[in-house]
Specification:
single chain, mainly alpha
């Protein structure tokens, strides 16, 4: 941003928006770390990221999981092994391709994820509980816009 733009009302508003987005990202990261510890304090937040992905999207291959979580395959392999040892993740044969192995959550993994995410949702619910439906809908639409999603597209 150039110096002239900082002096305009629009420039000042954009700076304030940037500050609030940074605050939201920081709070979200801290909440993800806390949620990971709530799930199991012995695992790294990156391992919980894998758990959350499997919870949201279901069984998948290790390579798709690595690509989808922006992690390298060796990290995913190491973290999945830890999650398997702890009883949160298991390997299953693919119903579509008998040669393929899919990673999926165990029943324990699903239950603990549900509980951890419920706690996380409560954190955000407390902040928006006083909003009316119109305020909430407006905020959702604004977030979709800033995230680059059209009105009817789902966020992944």
């Amino acid at each position: 941003m150039n110096e002239e733009r900082k002096d305009t009302l629009r420039g000042q508003l954009e700076l304030k928006l940037g500050e609030q987005i940074n605050a939201l990202i920081s709070a979200s990261h801290a909440l993800n770390v806390r949620t990971s510890a709530y799930f199991d304090s012995s695992i790294q937040p990156a391992a919980f990221h894998i758990v959350r992905w499997l919870y949201s999207h279901g069984p998948t291959s290790a390579s798709i999981l690595a690509d989808s979580t922006a992690m390298d395959r060796s990290s995913v392999s190491r973290l999945v092994k830890q999650l398997e040892i702890l009883g949160y993740v298991k390997r299953e044969g693919s119903p579509d391709d008998r040669r393929a192995i899919l990673l999926t959550l165990t029943e324990l993994g699903r239950k603990k994820t549900f509980d951890a995410l419920r706690d996380k949702e409560n954190f955000f619910y407390e902040r928006i509980s006083q909003w009316d439906n119109q305020q909430l809908d407006t905020f959702i639409e604004m977030l979709k816009s800033i995230n680059g999603f059209e009105q009817n597209n789902e966020i992944i």
